[in-house]
Each structure stands twice: as structure tokens, then as C-alpha cells.
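Task card 7
Instruction: Convert sequence to C-alpha cells.
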Amino acid sequence: MAKRGLGRRTVDSNTQGTPVSQGEANPQSEAKRSTVERPPSRSVDDLSGALAKLGGQGAPQVGQKSFGELRPRDIIRITNPRTVYCTHREVQATPWPSLSTDPAELESALRQAVEGQEWFTGLSARIKERAIKFFIEIHELACSMKDNGQLQPIIVERGDPASGGGQLLAGERRLIAALYSRGLIETLTAEIYNGTLSSLQRAIIRDQENNKSPLRYYETLISKQDIFKSLEGAADMSAAELAAYLGYRTRSVPSVLKRLFILPCCDQVIEIARIKDLGHRDIVKLIAIAEKDPAAIERRLRACQKEERGESSRGTEGADKNNKDDAGSQALKAAASHGLVIKPRTNKKLPRKLVELALTTTVISQKSRQTIEDLDLDTTEGLAEAWNTLAVELAGEEG
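Output:
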């Protein structure tokens, strides 16, 4: 068992060649937060039998697989639900600190390395902190692979058996660690599927590999959505049938995921989950809202995106929270001066309905209309700001 500094979690080299999590403070606290049943972990060797038992829609043949040593730069990324913050080319172009960097100085050295990089400067303050934590773990993984070797192969698909590379299916952090090492890790051991796999096969292989270390919940949703999209007739399947494909033992979570994946605004819900870092219970609430009022999801997404853009321009999270609290307090005070007092138990349905009715009139300017449409009327602050906008717009109007 290899343990490295910076107060980070232990990497268990005997079970998995990657850090335990990606930017999470504690896997136990994450389990409490999302209360989601995690799918049972399966090795790729189990996939052929598992898919065959499902009747299903094609399993990789054992004879197609082989093992080999591949150069990191010859491996192409297709898709992966796990967030990695930059492209593989950008990883290679970034001047990362040496693997011999003192652990006590690593975070500072990483911040200096990414400062001024175009991919990093475009991130919000909150996401920048996640990226730093992610690359601290990548640095630790690269050190472990260099010192102890690669204990788990990556998985690639090679459509052309004569080619020297392949398309990455699983093991992206190991690949990024090799690129991060700047040549110190020259090759990666790979389990290679020779021939072209189906989209379902690719989705299940990636999903099962990602289950070996915790994903953020929105990443889990993307991973499961890839399988759902690849399943013929998935929308007509029962929760029990979907559970087998999605890797769950019970029907409760698959039934919720099916409700989400058949929504026309499914991608918008997942994007809200990404921005707000939501868990399972919050997603269930959003699904219920989307089923009744899809337009509410559009409004909420616009508000989240506006908040995310604002956070990027403001800088630090602390300043963002203070500014948001101050702005929310001022909006509530202004709304009270315009006749709307919103308290914790206030029923917001009537004032929201009045706002929506006002938007149907011809006296509202396009600028005010756009301002209100960008607000989330399901929140106290959004409703208060919309009320204030209308109060200013309708001042002096009769009726």
C-alpha cells in the first residue's frame, strides 16, 4: 500500500491503480449526501457473460481480446463521463512540476504550472479548486505508477488490428498520469478489444470501470444515460430489466433514472446537476418539476448558468457567497417596499402567477422580459428580483 503526502487519502495499489476518488472530501460523506445505491463492481472479464445472460444486444467475444504495451500519445480519447478539465493535448502542453517535487510544495507548484493556461483561466473559481485537487491526485498516481508499476491495465478498442494505438474505453486517469509524467512513463499495459464494439458494449465497459472509484453524481447520470441511449427499446423496458443493464440490484434507482432519461429536458437537468453538484434526492425533485412544468427547468438552468458565469468573473467562492447573500437580502427588502413580503413559509404560487401573467401583457419591455426570463422563479431571490423588475416597469400604470 503506497501512501503519499499532502494529507490526501491512501492509494491502494493492490486493488486499483487510481486514487480513491476525484476531488471528493470523503467517500463516506458522499454516500450519505446522495444516498444512492452504488452498482456492484464487475471486472471487464465478467462483461461477456453478463451481457450474454441479458439476452442481449451483443457481448464482446473473448477471442477478440489481447494485451499489449501502448505509447500514451497513440491512445485517443472518445468520451468519458468523468470530468478531467482539459484535453489530453492540453495535458501534454502544460509545464507540470517534476515527480520529485516535495509534497509540501506540490499544490503551490501546480498552481504555478496552470497559471495562464487557457484551459484553466476559463474555469470558474469553484471548478479551478476541483481541478487543482484532481491534478494533485494525478501527480500522486503518476508517482505511484513510476515507482510501483502499472497494476491495472487500461482498456482500449482497436478497430484496425494493424494500428499501433487505440481508442480509450477505460483508465483515463492512468493515461493522464502517463502524459503528466512527461515521458517518465513510456508505455501503458492495455487490454485491447480488436475489432469494433457496439455503443452498448462501450457504454457498459466504461460504466463498470468508472464504478471502481466514486464519480460525482452528475457523472454517474451521464454514464448511465450512455447505456440507456444505447439500449434498443430502453424506454419500454421495466425497471427490473433496466436494473440488470445499469448494474443495480434493485429497481428503485433504475425507475428514477428511467423517468429522467425519457424527459425531453433530460440533458438540462443533468447540466443543472453538474453546475450545482446535486445528489440523488435533488435530482428526484427536479424530475418531478420537469414532469409538471418543463419551462421551469429551462428557467432554473439559465439562472444556474448565469450564476456560474458570475462566479467565474468574481473570483473567490467566499466573495461570491457574500455578494449573493447581500444581493438576495437587498432584493427581498426592495420587494417588501413594493408590497411583496416573502418569508420562509410564504406561499410563492400567487406572486409567481402574477409575474407570469404580467409577462403576457404588452406593457412589459423586451429588456425587462428577458431579465425575468433569466431568473429562477422557484427561488425566493429570483421571485423577489422579478417582482422588483415589474414594479419599476409598471410604475404609474393603471390596472
